[in-house]
Specification:
- By secondary structure, the chain is an alpha/beta fold.
- The chain is built from eleven helices and 13 strands.
- The strands form three sheets. Strands 7-1-2-8-9-10-11-12-13 form a nine-stranded mixed β-sheet.
- Strand 8, helix 5 and strand 9 form a beta-alpha-beta unit.
- The chain is globular, with a radius of gyration of 20 Å.
Length: about 300
């Protein structure tokens, strides 16, 4: 009797990416995350379940989605438009099929490791010529350790470079499983203060920082990513504490990512309120003083993603 196939839910595959590791890359975005960061730019990544994303600017209010839904899950809201109630929606996709204007999309497709590899290997020549590869992101990709091990095993056969972007809130055993395959870790450090971290992300940072400490003593290639969020960590004293912690771990490279509001329309498309809607996006130039501070402390700090 054959065992059930390992699968994972993926909501986007971005080919020819250049900002999530060296060279030309394919970035695979996994659904499911155990953090709830107030500034999350991909709220469709948070739940493991499939969801319907609604694009209000494309909608002509024809009502065909209402007629198509077998569960009466769609309602019209003055603020959000024709949104789906996640408690009623079975993500059958019938409303998506009936929408002629591209105003609805099903977020989340189940892949096997073999099926995903068939997609990423199409760009093998680009990886080899540019020194690129694949990057798994999310959501939190490390919530799918068995899938990743099978997928990475396939990727390593032709020598594909592998990078993982993680918030680090998983058991250490998960890192042990994927470490033999991983060439580069992007590790998010959002705040050092545990109470502040819990308030803005919904979880403690104790396990995250402990994992980072252990990873730093084991994996040679780590880049720290810190999103700079107004009112959360956009303070020299806060970032200095992060810089000190990173320096103590002998990690040399950091990326400071400016806050932006690109996730606002996605929250609306899911019928959810965005907590930071009143905060304007930051300019890359606003990070220069923090970059200078980090460099003064001996770190290779970069404004924006590499």
């Amino acid at each position: 009797m054959s065992r059930p196939k390992t699968t994972a839910s993926i909501f986007e595959i971005e080919r020819y990416a250049t900002k999530d590791g060296p060279g030309i890359r394919t970035v695979v975005f996994f659904k499911g995350c155990n953090l709830r960061c107030a500034w999350c730019q991909n709220p469709e990544s948070q739940r493991f379940e499939k969801e319907i994303m609604y694009y209000i600017n494309a909608c002509v209010k024809c009502g065909k989605c209402l007629e198509a839904c077998p569960n009466n899950a769609i309602r019209y809201d003055e603020t959000y438009g024709f949104i789906s109630n996640p408690d009623r929606c079975s993500a059958c996709g019938l409303c998506v099929d009936q929408c002629l204007y591209g105003a609805r999309a099903l977020m989340g497709t189940e892949y096997t490791p073999e099926g995903l590899f068939e997609i990423v290997k199409k760009d093998l020549d680009f990886y080899q010529e540019s020194g690129g590869g694949i990057t798994v992101s999310g959501g939190e990709p490390l919530l799918n350790p068995d899938f990743l091990v099978e997928f990475f095993t396939l990727c390593k056969s032709p020598g594909i470079h592998i990078a993982i972007e993680t918030a680090g809130n998983v058991p250490w055993e998960t890192f042990e499983k994927v470490m033999p395959f991983t060439d580069l870790f992007f590790f998010d450090v959002k705040h050092i203060d545990d109470e502040v971290h819990q308030f803005w992300t919904g979880v403690s940072n104790k396990n995250i920082l402990k994992n980072l400490e252990r990873l730093a003593s084991t994996a040679p290639n780590i880049i720290i990513r810190t999103p700079v969020i107004p009112g959360v960590n956009d303070d020299e004293a806060v970032l200095e504490r992060i810089f000190y912690r990173v320096n103590d771990l002998n990690i040399t490279t950091m990326e400071l990512l400016p806050y932006h509001r690109l996730g606002l329309s996605k929250y609306r498309g899911l019928g959810r309120a965005y907590k930071l809607a009143s905060i304007e996006s930051m300019e890359l130039s606003e990070l220069e003083k923090y970059v200078a501070l980090g460099k003064k402390m001996g770190l290779n700090v970069i404004a924006g993603a590499i």
